[in-house]
Write a structure and sequence with these properties.
Blueprint (H helix, E strand, L loop, with lengths): L5 E6 L2 E11 L2 E4 L7 H15 L6 E5 L4 H11 L3 E4 L11 E6 L6 E6 L1 H7 L3 E9 L3 H12 L3 E11 L9 E2 L2 E2 L2 E2 L1
Parallel strand pairs: 4-5, 4-8, 8-9, 9-10, 9-11
Antiparallel strand pairs: 1-2, 2-3, 3-12, 6-7
Length: 183
């Protein structure tokens, strides 16, 4: 029997119990991990597609790794391609565009990298940037920086959930909000 604490939430008609994770003393966040949760990913993609329906765009952009299944499912729903910004450089990626952000879950700097092969897909395009959960906005900031360097326009920002200061995320298209848990 575990001593873990959970936060119950309903997302796109699907109920989930999210485990609370301490990111620093006295502060916990609810962890949404959509990897392998096909039911939740598909339902979330359908609902986000409805909310994004009227926004003219050419491409979806997300950062690896947890939001990749969402990008794929939303790409199918919206019939638009998607690009994944990587976190590790591989030599085959060629002449990349990159930006550095700070991860809330690790507390460490992380790099986002646009593969050279994806530059043409993004350049001079209207993009929706996508994440599973938006907490501090640092990943969004990194994605915006890369899209700016690639001469692309961000037309919307979307996520399954936002977290923390709700007013800060009023411009985000999302399906729900998570509080921060303090002791």
């Amino acid at each position: 029997m575990s001593n873990h604490q959970y936060y119950s939430i309903e997302i796109a008609g699907i109920k989930r119990d999210l485990r609370l994770f301490e990111i620093k003393p006295g502060l916990k966040i609810a962890i949404l991990n959509i990897l392998g949760d096909t039911e939740l990913v598909q339902a979330s993609a359908r609902e986000l597609a409805k909310k994004l329906e009227g926004i003219e765009h050419d491409i979806l952009v997300t950062a690896e790794a947890k939001s990749i299944p969402l990008a794929y499912a939303l790409s199918v729903e919206l019939k638009k391609p998607y690009v994944i910004l990587r976190k590790t450089y591989k030599p085959y990626m060629g002449d990349v565009v990159q930006a550095e952000t700070l991860s809330i879950t690790t507390g460490q700097p992380q790099v986002l990298i646009l593969d050279e092969k994806d530059r043409d897909l993004i350049q001079h395009k209207k993009a929706i940037i996508l994440d599973d959960v938006i907490s501090t906005g640092s990943t969004l900031q990194g994605m915006r920086m890369i899209l700016d360097k690639a001469n692309s326009t961000v037309v919307a920002e979307a996520s399954i959930l936002t977290e923390g200061d709700r007013a800060q995320w009023s411009g985000i298209v999302s399906l729900g909000h998570l509080p921060l848990f303090t002791e």
